Amino acid sequence: MNDYPSPPKKIPTGNTLRALGFALLAKKEYSKTDLKQKLLAYGAAFDEVETLVEELAQQNYQSDERMAGMLLRSQIRQGRGPARIKQALKKHDIDLDLAQQEYDEVDWFEQALNLKIKKFGAEVITDPKQKAKQIRFLQYRGFSMDIIMKVVNYKGEEDFY
What we know:
By secondary structure, the chain is mainly α.
């Protein structure tokens, strides 16, 4: 261990802060709130970060709407249901209205059914313990009880649409 003090970290301002914002957005999509937190973690001034993030949003480099759509599609690919998706949007401080059209177009029954078949197979289980296991699995994934019960009891010939 050396006895020399570490050099003070340079706090980003002006063009350095702008370059940092662009670098962050080049790697991944961020919500306004997430981008502000990232930039503030570097020690930048709050007012300067606020101004920069608003400017990046106006120039469409940062978009909460794009972030909402990306997050929705990502969560669906991961097998998450409506409740878990709303929770993820809330975590990133994004309003569901920004992805409402895509959200409304999703067939949640089909998503839950595909997830159930992938994990447990297509047959209808009569054993209460196994049925409870399937129900808990789909609840954890964020699906509502009415969809879960339709999926767990789905025999293939009924039409639930």
